[in-house]
Design a protein that fits this description.
The complex is a heterodimer of chains A (about 290) and B (about 290). Chain A has 14 helices and no strands. Chain A has two domains: about 50 residues, no CATH class; about 220 residues, MetI-like (MetI-like fold, Orthogonal Bundle), CATH 1.10.3720.10. In chain A, helix 4 runs parallel beside helix 7. By secondary structure, chain A is mainly α. Chain A starts with 8 loop residues before the first helix and ends with a helix. Chain B is built from 13 helices and no strands. With about 290 residues, chain B is an all-alpha fold. Chain B folds into two domains: about 30 residues; about 230 residues, MetI-like (MetI-like fold), CATH 1.10.3720. The chains are: A mainly alpha (about 290), B mainly alpha (about 290).
């Protein structure tokens, strides 16, 4: 192994070459995303100019202004942005609360039916979402929830619930029990132990679950595509897909401005809590 | 003592209640309801419907478009499996140690934070046959250019490439976690026995990563049999039906043409069965004890 023992000069050169190659590859890997941003900032006549120009100069915010505020075309990205925020945050709230409350007794209490409940919930991770599409639509239709926030939030939360239980149970099982016992001796009931001891101790894993759920709710496409038919209720992915058909193929400016806007919140989360996201993904793989 | 035990029982189920309600109403019930619908001639707006036995399933045997979409979905799944297993693994091995690794990992992970629509739009523009940069650079280095998304021979490969770009970061992180779980002293012992890096990779890394492979396999199979968004944005199933996928066919059957919920539900259950068979096959192939 390269870093065992004294590093020799030869290995340093090798390592340096590898790093350079990887940096080049990473730059290339990010180029498609960079191209979206560059395009969104260019003036319309500059966009389709060849050879491709990677510096958007002179830059313009016109495309952002158009997709955010103009009502002349079908989809308004500004409104979709608000919708997506409400849907994603609502989903996160339900998933984090419901799965923490469910995972706690599954990890720390003994009661009849515990294994059955756990197996059913985790087994449902194998059920493809596409299989539930039609019956879920019928259900939401009968509830009168089509084109409503709850019609988007609740099924979305139900879809992430099983993963949340799986992830949190794993964490709760490994948690040392002394603090819980101490609280119980002091007369705290189960709910108090849960809210005052367990939840504060699990903040990192709860944050990972929240980010993970936010990502899937923010980015989900198929369910909102069928569950919403009023344009003012579209979340971002649906609004963007329709933006594409609203503009002719050459109008890449507004489309790319919309695409860049939709990537913004997760980019910010990603820059702030990079480690959390990676941790969440890592934990999601533990079932393997 | 008895009272205490029944109190625990009650407490546990009170904690479970909100989640179980959500799960029962929006997961378990729709699963069974979908199975029931697949044996009916239900349509949206039709007040009454009747049971038709296996008629919806039998009709799929004659539905050539369904069969084409099933074949396409197979091609996509098979064609994407090897790159999805190999590319993130190669990156993980390269990024397991060394300079700048956190920064580099983030770069490769970033596309996974995007929605499938954003990813699709980005590649639609990159692959634009006339003014897209991809063809421009290909031409610049003397390679042949094509209308990648409009050519039936390349459209599916363009979709596979787009998907690889999108999900590689996710599997990279999974592989990195797997690599970090392999104890260091196994490698040290192998080095003492005179095994080189290449030998260590085949004799230690690959076998010990078996549970990770299983996870990546199964996750990828479940996901790729349900491919929809990439197709919807990039090709709409075209050219012709060259990239039409099962979920797209299901979506159109249920929500665009005559709202045939019965036959679309039958498609969903055929898809479910296929995914289940494939996942179980993977478990069979890759199961076995992993001992350090």
């Amino acid at each position: 192994m390269a870093d065992a023992g004294q590093p020799s000069r030869r290995i340093d050169v090798q390592g340096l070459l590898l790093t350079c190659a990887l940096v080049a590859l990473a730059v290339l890997w990010l180029a498609p995303a960079g191209w979206v941003l560059v395009t969104s900032l260019k003036r319309t006549p500059d966009i389709i100019r060849l050879p491709p120009e990677w510096i958007p100069w002179p830059a313009t915010m016109d495309h952002y202004r158009e997709v955010l505020f103009s009502s002349s075309r079908t989809a308004r990205i500004g409104r979709a942005f608000v919708n997506s925020t409400i849907i994603a945050l609502g989903t996160v709230a339900i998933v984090v609360i419901a799965s923490a409350m469910a995972a706690y007794p599954l990890a720390r209490m003994r009661f009849p039916g515990r294994n059955l409940v756990f197996v059913l919930i985790v087994g449902s991770l194998m059920v493809p979402n596409a299989v539930l599409l039609i019956p879920q639509y019928v259900l939401v239709l009968e509830l009168g929830w089509l084109s409503t926030y709850q019609g988007l939030i609740v099924p979305e939360a139900a879809a992430s619930f099983a993963f949340g239980v799986f992830l949190l149970r794993q964490f709760f099982v490994l948690m040392p029990g002394e603090l819980e016992d101490a609280a119980r001796i002091d007369g705290a009931n189960a709910w108090q132990v849960f809210t005052r001891i367990v939840v504060p101790l699990s903040q990192p894993v709860l944050a990972a679950l929240a980010i993970f759920t936010f990502r899937s709710a923010w980015n989900d496409f198929l369910w909102p595509l069928i569950a919403v038919n009023r344009p003012e209720m579209f979340p971002l992915p649906v609004a963007l897909a329709l933006l594409r058909s609203a503009y002719s193929a050459e109008s890449y400016g507004p489309i790319m401005a919309g695409a860049a806007l939709s990537a913004l919140p997760l980019l910010v989360v990603f820059l702030v809590a990079n480690r959390r996201i990676v941790e969440g993904v890592r934990l999601s793989g533990l079932k393997g | 003592m008895r009272g205490r035990r029944s109190r625990t029982w009650l407490t546990a189920y009170l904690f479970l209640a909100p989640g179980l309600l959500l799960f029962a109403v929006f997961r378990a019930y729709p699963l069974l309801e979908g199975l029931r619908l697949s044996f009916t001639n239900a349509r949206l707006g039709r007040a009454t419907y009747s049971f038709v036995g296996f008629a919806n399933y039998m009709r799929l045997l004659d539905d050539t478009r369904f069969q084409v979409s099933l074949t396409n979905t197979f091609v996509y799944t098979v064609g994407s499996t090897v790159p999805i297993l190999a590319i993130p693994l190669a990156l993980a091995l390269a990024l397991n140690r060394g300079r700048l690794r956190t920064l580099l990992r983030s770069a490769f992970f970033f596309p996974f934070t995007l929605s499938v629509v954003t990813v699709g739009l980005a590649w639609l523009w990159l692959l634009d046959p006339v003014v897209g940069p991809f063809n421009y650079y290909l031409k610049a280095v003397g390679l042949p250019v094509r209308s990648w998304l409009a050519d039936p021979h390349t459209a599916m490969w363009a979709i596979i490439g787009t998907t690889i770009w999108w999900v590689t970061g996710y599997y990279l992180v999974i592989y990195l976690a797997g690599l970090q779980d392999i104890p260091r002293d196994v490698y040290e012992a192998a080095a003492l026995d005179g095994a080189g890096a290449w030998r260590a990779f085949w004799a230690i890394t690959l076998p010990l990563l078996r549970p990770v492979f299983l996870f990546v396999f199964v996750t990828h199979i479940i996901g790729s049999f349900q491919i929809f968004g990439q197709v919807f944005v990039l090709t709409m199933g075209g050219p012709g039906d060259a990239t039409r996928s099962v979920v797209q066919h299901l979506y159109e059957t249920a929500f665009q043409n005559f709202f045939q919920f019965g036959s679309a539900s039958a498609m969903a259950w055929v898809l479910f069965a296929v995914i289940l068979v494939f996942s179980l096959l993977q478990f069979r192939l890759l199961r076995g004890h992993t001992e350090y």
